[in-house]
Hints:
Blueprint: E1 2-7, H1 15-25, E2 33-38, H2 44-50, E3 55-58, H3 75-81, E4 85-90, H4 93-96, H5 102-114, E5 118-123, H6 127-131, H7 135-147, E6 155-158, H8 172-188, E7 196-199, H9 207-211, E8 218-221, H10 228-236
Parallel strand pairs: 1-2, 1-8, 2-3, 3-4, 4-5, 5-6, 6-7, 7-8
Helix pairs in contact: 1-10, 7-8
Bound molecules: 1,3-dihydroxyacetonephosphate.
Amino acid sequence: xxxxxxxxxxxxxxxxxxxxxxxxxxxxxxxxxxxxxxxxxxxxxxxxxxxxxxxxxxxxxxxxxxxxxxxxxxxxxxxxxxxxxxxxxxxxxxxxxxxxxxxxxxxxxxxxxxxxxxxxxxxxxxxxxxxxxxxxxxxxxxxxxxxxxxxxxxxxxxxxxxxxxxxxxxxxxxxxxxxxxxxxxxxxxxxxxxxxxxxxxxxxxxxxxxxxxxxxxxxxxxxxxxxxxxxxxxxxxx
Length: 238
Ligand code: 13P
């Protein structure tokens, strides 16, 4: 199975138009490709109703289950907004940069587990860590912290911060090295094979090259998922 995820982030999308453009340019849904759309909280309900052939994911969740947490949304409330909600992103670098440390990422995943929502765990280093040759220890720290309490993400996305939103995806060598670090970690922990994805400036131009990597199961797409036509073209090349 391959996974193609649209992370719309905080962009405003005309859902009806996006859907029509996607369907005009994506000829046939295939059983071998799972397409997942992650809209903002308030669009979850509409997306769940309209995107019958897609799976639905949330972009974030509270690390609490209920109570006085102004502005936060619990896992249970996510399910209230979308009965078809299957996934939720945790550990995205944009959330980590606003304070989500490894502990919070874990707590959020516990909330998801309690509500049977599958976590999509994002990990990835910044440019400074990469250039100092500290990528391996950094990724292992993120992974160790996540797995030490027995949590189990449904998907893991390697999203190097230095490639996100730049228009320049990581080169094959860098993606291969990072996937190897993650695979070796999972093997050493005797964890069941978790599908590994890549995210960071994926586009119609580079999708084929990226997906040619043998142990890559899919991609997490930001900017190039905002346009239904462009995302359909990526899906066609998948
Ligand atoms: P871009 O595709 O815009 O680089 O975003 C990637 C990302 O952060 C997906 O979660």
